[in-house]
């Protein structure tokens, strides 16, 4: 997963729900120094909550993505984020920064 272009991450999930697996895995895939390089907000929902789990990410170029982690799964979430990160990497390469 390309995390160099991420500036802010927000997640919300019920840790007791099997549907929260994607959000938990996503947080575990972040590098150890992630809190020093980006803002991370995690909202733990109560056991009785009916609110859906989500992963919301903000990139360096200002684009925001709110992904339904219950529907996409970890592979889908990572593909979506890597797709935009590769676009940013190409733009950075072309401008020579």
Automatic annotation (TrEMBL):
Protein origin, superkingdom: Eukaryota
How is this protein annotated for GO cellular component? mitochondrial large ribosomal subunit
- Kindly report the protein's main subcellular placement as a broad class: mitochondrion
Q: Tell me where in or outside the cell this protein is found.
A: Mitochondrion
Output the Gene Ontology terms for molecular function: structural constituent of ribosome
What are the protein's UniProt keywords?
Answer: Mitochondrion, Ribonucleoprotein, Ribosomal protein
Database matches in Pfam families: MRP_L53
Record family assignment: Belongs to the mitochondrion-specific ribosomal protein mL53 family.
Its name, as the record gives it, is: Large ribosomal subunit protein mL53
Q: Which organism is it from?
A: Pseudogymnoascus verrucosus
